[in-house]
Every structure is written in C-alpha cells, then in structure tokens.
Specification:
globular, 76% helix, 357 residues, two-stranded antiparallel ribbon, 2 strands, mainly alpha, WAT1-related, 12 helices
C-alpha cells in the first residue's frame, strides 16, 4: 500500500506542471463565459481589466508578503523597471489589445490568431536561445512537428466547419447575445490582433528572463497585478473619458466577473503560469493555450446548446496530437539538463583535485 502511494506521489510530482496547466486552461474557459455575460450586460472591457488586476493585487499581497519574506530578492531600480515593462507586455497591453481587437474582427478570427501564440513563442524562444532544438535528435524534431501540428489543428477548428453535430437538448444556461458590431475594420483589426499575439509572446519570454533575477513568483505576480492595474487605468481614462459612469459597478454579474477574474485568473492562474514557466519554460506554458478553445467549444455545446461542427472535433484531435508530440520532445530537455549538470559536476571535481595537489 505504501509503495503504491509512493508511486502515485512520484507520478504526481513528475506531471504536476502538466496537470496545473490543464487546470489553468479550465479556469480561462470559465472566464470566457463569465466575461461574455458581463460585457453583454454593458460593462466596459477596459474597466474590467483595471478592476480585476486591482482585486488580484490585493488578494495576492498578503501571501506574497508573508510567504516570501525571506526568499524575496532585493528590488533594485533596474529590476523595478523590468517588472514595469513585463506588466505592460503581459497585462495592460496584451489584454487590452485583445479586447480592442474584438471591436474590429470576429471572435472566430481572434481565437484562431490568439492560438498561434504557442508557435510565436517557440520561434522567439529559439531565436533568443531560451529553447534548444537539436534536429539530429528525434525529440528535437518532435518539438518542431508538435508546434506545427498544433497550429494546423487550431486553424482546422477555425477555417473548416463541416457537418453540424446538432445538440440533442436545449441550452442549460442562457447568455444574452449582442448583435454583431457594425464597426468592423479587418485591416485595423488584423494589425491589432497581430500586435496582441506578438506582445503576449514576448511577455511569456520576458517572464522566464525576469524569474531568473526575481524568483519569487507570488511577489512578482503581485507587482505585475498592481502595475498592470495602474497602466490599464491610464489607458481606460483615455478611452472612456466621455463615459465616467463606466467605472460604476453594481452588485451583479459585473462584480462577480471582476472577483473571479481578479482572484482566480489574474492572481492564482498567473502565479501558476509563472511557476510552470520557471520549471518548464515559456514554450511549455503557451502550448496548452489551444486546450481552452477546445474546452470552450465543448462547454458551449453541452451547456449553452450551441452547434458543434465536425471540423472542431477533427481540429481538437489534431491539437492533442501536436500537444503530445511537443511535450514528448520537451521531455528531452531533462536529459540535456542532466548531462550538463553531470559535466559541470565532473569539471568541478577535477578542479578540486587539481587545486588540492
């Protein structure tokens, strides 16, 4: 019995980052429906981003202050500027650009483009040498193929619908839908969407770099939330300057979406992503993003009664294949790290023997 428990603990420790990232995508799936209901209720997306990160900063501050009191590195001016830039890339710019792009494009186009972040992050990480590729090694080839296959699956879900798999029952939950926007401008929207994807990818890469100098995930999450809230507030004041009533929040779905988005998404899930980024790297974190698209489609089918297309099912299967390939290839990084540590240890022992003589 004890041996089985020990084996389960070993398996859990091995796949803990994978499990956490899957749960993270579940959390992002739920926020999609909650914010959709809130925005349809009339809440400004930019006010939402500001309030949600204020709530996240307040919620994370006590944990960061007490749990990382001794482990928190000294915060220098240069590091503070770096965190400020990281907050702009990872929070205020990327999230506000995401919501701004919805005004000019369709949700389908935005979803397909947003799921290319894993591929963009992989390319940037390779260029900046955060990610190692050895095309002579099957695992190195698997990382490249896995990224391309996942991207192909996402594009299949978006561009190919196929026959409708009609729901056999009515929707369990009704979310009021707004009429389509009449201000669509695909050229402007495409540029905004591309800017959002590139900004988010660079933000993930910068997280890995900042964590090396400031390895206190709770504290870094708190700093990012507060700085992101201030930056977003400035942006919101500019955008909503003629609508001061947008800042007023009632005791309704708007409040619940802010609390959930702040405490769980901007706070807890950001901390989990930082932890996984430190353990596995930025590419590992972003490759799970397409799962949210799959979960949204499944939940919309079973709960909201929306139509489910064969193309979505085929695309989901392709995404999972690509995800498996990339994760299998990423496991090869452990062997490289182990060999590097062994070489460094051997060199240190030789130096110690030489010094003793």
């Amino acid at each position: 019995m004890e041996q089985k428990i020990f084996s389960l603990l070993l398996v859990y420790r091995e796949f803990k980052p994978h499990l956490l990232m899957v749960l993270t995508q579940v959390g992002y799936t739920l926020i999609f429906f909650i914010t959709q209901a809130s925005f349809n209720h009339g809440m400004s997306p930019y006010v939402y981003v500001t309030y949600r990160h204020v709530v996240a900063g307040i919620a994370m501050f006590p944990f960061a202050y007490f749990l990382e009191r001794s482990a928190r590195p000294k915060l220098t001016f240069a590091l503070l500027v770096e965190i400020f830039v990281l907050s702009a890339l990872g929070i205020s710019l990327s999230i506000n650009l995401y919501f701004a792009s919805l005004k000019y494009t369709s949700p389908t186009f935005l979803a397909s483009m947003y799921n290319t972040i894993a591929s963009l992050t992989f390319i940037i990480a390779v260029a900046l040498r955060f990610e190692v590729i050895d095309l002579r090694n099957p695992r190195g080839i698997a990382k490249v193929l896995g990224t391309l296959i996942s991207l192909a699956g996402v594009m299949t879900m978006t561009l190919y619908k196929g026959p409708i798999m009609r729901n056999l029952w009515g929707p369990l939950i009704h979310i009021q839908q707004k009429s389509a926007s009449t201000h669509e401008s695909w050229l402007k929207g495409s540029l905004v969407t591309i800017s959002c994807c590139v900004t988010t990818s660079i933000g993930y890469i910068m997280q890995a770099s900042t964590l090396k100098r400031y390895p206190a995930q709770l504290s870094l999450t708190t700093w990012m939330c507060f700085m992101g809230a201030v930056q977003s507030a400035v942006f919101t004041i500019i955008v909503e300057h003629d609508n001061p009533s947008a800042w007023i929040i009632g005791f309704n779905i708007d409040l619940w979406s802010i609390l959930y988005g702040g405490i769980f998404v901007a706070g807890l899930l950001t901390y989990i992503q930082l932890w996984c980024t430190e353990k596995k790297g930025p590419v590992f974190v972003t490759v799970f993003n397409p799962l949210s698209t799959i979960f949204v489609a499944i939940l919309a089918y079973f709960v909201l009664g929306e139509n489910f297309y064969l193309g979505s099912l085929i695309g989901a299967f392709i995404v999972i294949m690509g995800l498996y390939l990339l994760l299998w290839g990423k496991e090869g990084d452990k062997e490289i790290d182990l060999k590097t540590k062994q070489c460094n240890s051997s060199e240190n022992q030789q130096l110690e023997v030489y010094a003793s003589k």
